[in-house]
Amino acid sequence: MPTIFFYGPKLDKEKSREMIKSFTETASRLTGIEKPAFVVYLRESSHDNVGVGGELLKDRMEAEHVKGKD
Amino acid sequence: MPTIFFYGPKLDKEKSREMIKSFTETASRLTGIEKPAFVVYLRESSHDNVGVGGELLKDRMEAEHVKGKD
Amino acid sequence: MPTIFFYGPKLDKEKSREMIKSFTETASRLTGIEKPAFVVYLRESSHDNVGVGGELLKDRMEAEHVKGKD
Amino acid sequence: MPTIFFYGPKLDKEKSREMIKSFTETASRLTGIEKPAFVVYLRESSHDNVGVGGELLKDRMEAEHVKGKD
Amino acid sequence: MPTIFFYGPKLDKEKSREMIKSFTETASRLTGIEKPAFVVYLRESSHDNVGVGGELLKDRMEAEHVKGKD
Amino acid sequence: MPTIFFYGPKLDKEKSREMIKSFTETASRLTGIEKPAFVVYLRESSHDNVGVGGELLKDRMEAEHVKGKD
């Protein structure tokens, strides 16, 4: 019955598979609960709906990109 | 003030109505809190962003579909 | 694999059973997904860690209680 | 490390910036934790996937709109 | 109907009041939705059930404390 | 900025460390985002506040225990 939520960037199908497999194996081993009981939700979050340190992530990424060009 | 989140497949409008109505009536009756205080969020989850038993649900559905055809 | 979260007051065991049973039956019927795939989390929320309308619920309850006594 | 989730209507970029900035400043001041440690997620919720008082919000909005016209 | 979740350290009653009041006023102003429709959940998270950068926060705090003493 | 929530049984400190470390390393490798940006919340869920298949988990565990004794 354990449930895992991942909030982060969109992953392609191969990476989604790997994340689900790895999270489930680790959590099953550490809890002693069999793997079929685990559900993993990959909840996509884009740069224009998340803020870090008080700034929209999109703004911060653009600022760093400009700085990186100097 | 109670809040209910449902993570699952997309529902059409009629089924969304029924789920919201039923969840709210049940929870209102059991908590003794009046219905207007309840909020229900239907959060869609598709087969390529959820994993069950360590596998992407999409892969599992396709495998079962193939097996079902045997 | 669908998952339901309920944020609200603590329920005794009998009411917890009823809520879990009713939510699962309703959601199973509306989604067409079999009941064993459903997980319901009852996440307790007390009056001093929830706010409604900008006020701590505890304050609001006490204010209403006083008013109710007039 | 604190994390804030906002479930509500879609905001334009300017309002998203303001919400993230204000939530982070308030929470940083009240917890004494530095701003870079805060993450804010704006999770959009539309009128056809949320229910209030047992009704789909879309239905309620339309009913109020009709009533408002009387 | 918007809902805000705060995951972070436990706050005393006065700070809880301020956080709920400020989040609700900001969000009401930016969304144009009246304050009574907002619910804020303060979900406590302690140093031994949260990880940052791959480490238990408790371990990291203790390591920084020791370093700070040098 | 990615965030991971684990809802499941309480873990001791050593297992909490391993889960946080493993989830963060896996997610960092798959997303290409550096480890310090990740936060993992371990949200404890006990047998009397979770339901599986429409039954309180506590009831199900006790029924299985009795059956296991036959």
Query: What is the count of DSSP helices of chain A, taking H or I runs of 4+ residues?
Result: 2
First-to-last CA distance of chain A: 51 Å
**Cα-based radius of gyration of chain A, to the nearest Å:** 17 Å
Summarize the main sheet of chain A.
2 strands, parallel
% residues in beta strands of chain A: 15-25%
What's the average pLDDT of chain A? 94
Secondary-structure class of chain A: alpha+beta
Assembly category: homohexamer
Number of strands of chain A: 4
Task: Characterize the overall form of chain A.
Answer: elongated
Q: How are the strands of the largest sheet of chain A arranged?
A: 1-2
User: Are there runs of chain A of 5+ residues with pLDDT below 50, and where?
Assistant: none
What is the helix content of chain A? 40-55%
The H-and-E topology of chain A, N to C, reads as EHEEEH
